[in-house]
User: What shape does this take?
Amino acid sequence: MINQTVRGTKDLLFDEWYRFKYVQQTASEISSLYGFLPVETPIFEYTEVFTKTLGDSSDIINKEMYTFNDKGGKSITLRPEFTAAVVRLLVEKKLQTPIKLFSTGPAFRYERPQKGRQRQFHQINFEAFGVEDPKADIELITLAQHLLTEFGIDKNVRLEINSLGDGETIGKYREALISYFKKFQNDLSEDSQNRLIKNPLRILDSKDKTDKEIISGAPKISDYYTKKSLSFFEQILNGLTILDIPYTVNDKLVRGLDYYCHTVFEFVTEDLGSQGAVFAGGRYDNLVSSVGGKHTPAIGFAGGIERVMELTNYLVKEERAVCLIPIGKEAEEHALTLANELRRNGLYVIYEYSGTLKTRMRKANQADAKVALIFGDEELSSKTLKIKDMDLGEEKTIARNNIIKSIHQVYGQNRKSRFW
Ligand code: ATP
Ligand code: MG
Assistant: This one.
């Protein structure tokens, strides 16, 4: 029997499909206000696109990637995130910077499925390349906040931000963490013991209870900021205050990937259980050059469409139909032409191929049609139709050649697009 989707994947039906497209469409429209250009990369890449960028200590690289050899023996990976693929695009196509790129689509990670966590999920993704200025960070966070407001979820989601500083800061902080955590090496969870060698910053991410106690006494990154790092971070926090964007500085926030520096941030909620992050991102000034591009400071973030959909109350505003009610053989034949004409004029038409006047009227009511068009032999010969406003129950006779205008009069200002 073929009666199951793959674990962690979902079909999208009807209202949910509209809701999904609404999130994508809104994100794309708002991104364009900030000068983003849309791009779409393939959903799979050569595996090294990800292995050379995300870092050996990341969960994605270690356990979450869908990787396989294709029939030509090439190692292929379904994209687990967008940044690496967009960086590949930037370098390969030699795009001029500064440039801002928006993309959206599916991403794949082998994780334990739960609410807000799927194996095929979808992201909206924003990357700004070629700008060193902290204003770029502020602008990107503003865009994220703008989206939340547009989705009506800005009250349930709050911004957590941190700075990892520059190379010098991260280097010194890493050493300090290693010497601190080494003292507790045997008490740390297995994951954290592994991270101690590969990427000690990631230990700060740990959800393990004993780890957390140890972490509470760990050195603070703020004690390791260089003057430049501190000033960069302060300019961003200042900008957020001026723009009235509330934030909390969370000095344990390091994000899962190796490529971040300076700004890292998450927009988090308490409404999705343990899947708290709705948007997440940060600055990655050295990634492009590390994969063979020229030095290109950059900052980006990604949002989970499913998580936004869980939080938003967006209701599909479905347009109400024009229902055709032909009476008799001639009228029945004319109905096809009429339906065609109305649809070509952008109207949503319900036309059942058969049925009595009574069953057709019932159907029009059930479908919550706004307009019924009733016509039989008499109307055909006088080139007229009866038009009924289904809300008011009012019926009148109109000229056949005036039909589009008459229908619009019944809809008045209330007509919505079929889409949203
Ligand atoms: P988490 O901590 O929840 O695993 P993450 O740090 O791995 O998130 P990112 O790689 O930053 O997530 O991805 C950006 C956003 O994509 C997340 O904030 C979340 O909204 C969404 N996301 C990530 N993984 C999944 C998933 N498996 N299913 C649904 N949405 C996801
Ligand atoms: Mg994850």
